[in-house]
Amino acid sequence: MPADDVTVRRPTLTQVAELAGVSLKTASRALNQEPNVAASTGRRVRDAADLLGYRLNGIARELRRGATSALVGLVSGDLTNPFYSAVASGIERELRQHGLLLITANNDEDAMLERSLVDAFLERRVRALLVVPSADDHEYLAIEGNRGVPFVFLDRPPDGLAADAVLIDNVGGARSAGDHLLAAGHRRIALVGDLVRMAPQRGRIDGFVGAMRAAGNDAWEPYLRTDVHDVRHAERTVRDLLALDPAPTAIFTTNNRLTTGALRAMRGLADRPALVGFDDFDLADVLGTTVVAHDMTALGREAARLAHERISGHSGPARTIVISTSVITRGSGERPPR
Amino acid sequence: MPADDVTVRRPTLTQVAELAGVSLKTASRALNQEPNVAASTGRRVRDAADLLGYRLNGIARELRRGATSALVGLVSGDLTNPFYSAVASGIERELRQHGLLLITANNDEDAMLERSLVDAFLERRVRALLVVPSADDHEYLAIEGNRGVPFVFLDRPPDGLAADAVLIDNVGGARSAGDHLLAAGHRRIALVGDLVRMAPQRGRIDGFVGAMRAAGNDAWEPYLRTDVHDVRHAERTVRDLLALDPAPTAIFTTNNRLTTGALRAMRGLADRPALVGFDDFDLADVLGTTVVAHDMTALGREAARLAHERISGHSGPARTIVISTSVITRGSGERPPR
DNA sequence: GTGAAAGCGCTAACAT
DNA sequence: ATGTTAGCGCTTTCAC
Fold this sequence. Notes:
- 2 copies of one chain form a homodimer.
- In chain A, the strands form 2 sheets. A 6-stranded parallel sheet of chain A has the order 2-1-3-4-5-11, with helices on both faces.
- Chain A is of the alpha/beta class.
- Helix content of chain A is 43%, strand content 15%.
- In chain A, helix 5 links the parallel strand 1 (71-76) and strand 2.
- Chains A and B meet through helix 4, helix 5, strand 2, helix 6 and helix 11 of A and helix 4, helix 5, strand 2, helix 6 and helix 11 of B.
């Protein structure tokens, strides 16, 4: 009688074969639904496997099949940010269709950490690597790309190598935000932006400035605030903006975190400035917040699709998919200048 | 001159050893920082590895070391639900401290899919399996538990086997929500609940009913609505409740989705009923929504900690950690009955 | 329809 | 301090 607390070693295919009275290879064939197995033999093997509680060792299989796994890696920012979690969800759903699994890791917006996570994933022999990069320079990935590991960049274009990418129409989205506020009659429009070193932020600033220039408006210039990186900082920045004389009559926040900060700053205010935020968010409808929306889940899904095509052998030049944006009107962006 | 589009096969340790002019094992020792390697030899091996672009094959290592990976699996609901993404974030952060990676999969709240995902993870030889189970019966996991794969249940207790678990104080949290509304003078209090088959929901209903009973109040009874499973349905349910005569003067929603639905239903209403929601959420402060809060990231972190302890060899009876709750007062729960 | 032998890339055990 | 041998559990030849 075996002791209860002893960890039992997993049965191997060899043991299944022995119990079934067949050779190793026949057992393998039977369990993998390969042809050329007699029905009765197959039955016997499966019974033996069930009896032993056999489970295929994926690691051994992968080693034998060429040391490449069924894993796809995602390196991104913190999943508590709804943007990243929506992207991850879209990726996972798509991969699952193809029998692939998603490994996630948070780069904590640290370039060094990001590199070591990428290394860890490559050691695991991921089939593809999806990155929402924090680092600016991606050249170190170039060697890997040639070794058959496809890369897909999400939200930020690759710098220093040619790779597939799925981006958001940042310039267009920000331009339409600017146009929307201009159309409501605003001139003194503030922009609250995140770190300028991130490409999407630069695109959003460019789009906004483009709209202003095209309308011959330069009253926004004193109200440009960039490198605002968290909710608290955004709240403070918006408070400061509203204390100016003259104060801006409208605010454009360039991502969901900054929009949250602006909403906190404006909470309970008697006459609030107009507000348009980049990125849609939960409860924006209840709050009546006008946003530049885009399909974040689709961003993930498309990235996973590109990766899967590469895994399936597609070769060809790097492709870029651009996710479109649209202004969703909910009231905050339509308030007239006071 | 090699063709550009040919996928180059990854160099192996043998090739590194050859180039460095040492034996396989010495190369292995050098790259793994093992003792007993001359400084100059180590240097030569590392140079050779760099030159070839060598990267350890984790699959081969894992097979050799006992067919067990550095992966921990999480099976949960959709990551677009902030509850699951906060949990996943907490897990990933904790695992990373110990060199473990997180694989995630969405069970789509489908028991069959959940089982097949668990199978897939076990084939990958995950070191531990974290589950926010959709299925009610977890007995099929019992065999695996004895094979040395630790399980940790999150948010829902294991049924049919003994396993570690991290739960929320559902009964206590819901009781305090009930007490809070009673203290504000409410008697006709509605409860909008999710699927009763899920244990946390039963706990929340029990806690709420307990508070009502203790106060000798039975005016809530006509306003109990359960098995409300999505935002739209919650919105409709709250609308219907408010159309009753007499209408409830307060509403308790038992999770974040249902709270969202209630907020949508109450949007723009002249005199809104009091509202307390289970689960805190982003922008609840801006919306002034009183909630029963708990630390979701901590839930994930604690689960990962338990898993890591088991992986490190801890044996002993199954443990249960309970995450405490607290009422965060923001206005909606303090509105008096009209 | 079935089986025997080889080997994926690495590390553990045992020399030297 | 370094090298040799064996083998993790599976799939892939190739033979019968």
